[in-house]
Amino acid sequence: MKSFGNKNYRIHFLRTPFNLGLKVAFTTCLFLSLTNFLLGQITVGAEAGYRYLPLLKDKRVAVVVNPTSKIGETHLLTYLAANEVKLQKIFALEHGIYGKEDAGAKVKDGVDPISGLPVISLYGSGKEPNANDLEDVDIIVFDIQDVGARFYTYISSLHYIMLACAKTNTELIVLDRPNPNGHIIDGPVLDLKHKSFVGMHPVPVLHGLTIGEYGLMINGEGWLGDQLVAPITVIPCGNYKVGQHYSLPVPPSPNLPNDKSILLYPHLCFFEGTNVSVGRGTTFPFQVFGAPHFKGYNFSFTPEPMFGAKSPKFKGRKCYGVDLRNYPASDLKGLNLNWLLEAYQSKSGNFFNNFFVKLAGVDYLQKAIEEGKSAKEISAMWNEDVARFKEMSSKYHLYQRKSNHGLKSGND
Question: Where is the Peptidoglycan beta-N-acetylmuramidase NamZ C-terminal domain (predicted)?
Fold first, then answer.
């Protein structure tokens, strides 16, 4: 039995479908799913094999997976193989199928050495599967953990996969997973003139949807264009209300290693468009922020090359700033701008770079910060847009919401 090298990607994959190891994996997954459901614990879409395995029978199947595509300790590939699903290929998103690639680094095509399946990159020279990629595919199974932020690229990849499915009439099954930031709907709604791979749709920074609900919204709002509609089926989570706490069992990407980083990410990611570090190149990325030129701060950190951050901002230079590792991030009720405004007061040289507007999705956020507006004044600028989005997106809800999402932004 072999294991993938990344500790977060323990896929035990044996080539013979009827091998004892696969039978054990199948039995374990079935027992785990039933136990979790009966105990009232959250179950992810991948655990509901009884819902989607019949749809895969006698079909040629491609999968979109990464280290998060797991049922307990068993990877989805192992589970599908144990159920004699005819696997054709793997599509790889940002960070690759092993979760080893840096943010923004191109992912290469190749062959998975464990399963022997071809790996087609959707984060390299192209983002959309082409007709040749889908020629021998009847169904794509998508099982990727999202974090509920507009600039996290997995929802953009979902868009392009749906587009390819719509063009070729290839079925798509999305195995849904909880949104760890589902308790917040807030932030500027993207202006389509700033459309990019870190923001493709007119949604707030924090959209409050699961990735399955988001796919339904892409279809329902006609965002694929040319009246295209993807043949999509969402396998829902069980025992889940959007907004309830959900601790991710596997890091969704190299620089979101824990719950704290995942909860802080939507609020700190704006710093990626500035001359401020968010701690890439440390053991606590997206849990701090700072820069060498900051004055009056006792806390410091020094970014160094490491897994997931081969060339971090301010490499080898001591940065002074704010440590948020003990911040009660679960108490965040809206998009927090206070940290961004605090850092702007310590600016040196050009604070913003061209990436900031892509992340913000609007022109007015940078302008408002430069004009010295308060966090409360700035968040008021998008409240009406967020209210309209909430009404529109509610059509695609698959789950109850734990509480009503108010428009309070957390910047009061």
Answer: 263-399
Please state the rounded mean pLDDT for residues 42-63.
98
Residue 241, Cβ density class (10 Å: 0-12 exposed, 13-18 middle, ≥19 buried): middle
Pairing of strands 171-175, 232-235: parallel
Query: pLDDT tier at 34 (50, 70, 90 boundaries)?
Result: low
Q: How far apart (Å, rounded) are the C-alpha atoms in residues 254 and 102? A: 7
Q: Is the pLDDT of residue 35 over 50?
A: yes
- Please name every residue paired with 206 in a beta bridge, in sequence order, or none if there are none: 149, 186
344-372 mean pLDDT: 95
Quick: pLDDT tens for 74-97. Answer: 999 999 999 999 999 999 999 999
Question: Residue 361's pLDDT is what?
Answer: 99
* Ramachandran angles phi, psi of 291, nearest 5°: -160, 160
Q: Is 122 in contact with 29 (CB distance < 8 Å)? A: no
Sole residue written with tokens 């970014």: 303
Query: Is there a contact between 334 and 408 (Cβ–Cβ < 8 Å)?
Result: yes
Radius of gyration, CA atoms only, the chain: 21
- Nearest Cα neighbor of 395 from 216, 240, 237 is 216
Are residues 13 and 75 in contact, defined by beta-carbon separation less than 8 angstroms?
A: yes
Torsion of the alpha carbons at 289, 285, 357 and 404, rounded to the nearest 10: -100
Q: Which of 372, 389, 373, 371 lies closest to 381, judged by CA?
A: 373
Q: What is the DSSP string of 293-332?
A: T--S--EEE----BTTBSS-TTTTS-EEEEE-TTS-GGG-
What 3-state DSSP class applies to 53?
A: helix
- Strand 86-92 to 110-111 pairing: unpaired
**211-220 and 154-168 helices, crossing angle to 10°:** 50
Q: Is residue 199 within 8 Å of residue 361, measured between CB atoms?
A: yes
Mapped onto helix, strand or coil, the DSSP state of residue 108 is coil
SS3 277: strand
Mean of the per-residue pLDDT values for the chain?
91
What domains are defined for the chain?
20-235 (3.40.50.12170), 259-382 (3.90.1150)
Largest CA distance in the chain: 66
What average pLDDT score do residues 327-338 get?
A: 92
Kindly report, residue by residue over 333-345, the tens digit of the pLDDT.
Answer: 999 999 999 999 9
Report how far apart, in Å, the C-alpha atoms of 217 and of each of 169, 272, 412 are: 18, 28, 31
Structure tokens at 72: 């307990």
DSSP annotation of 106 reads P
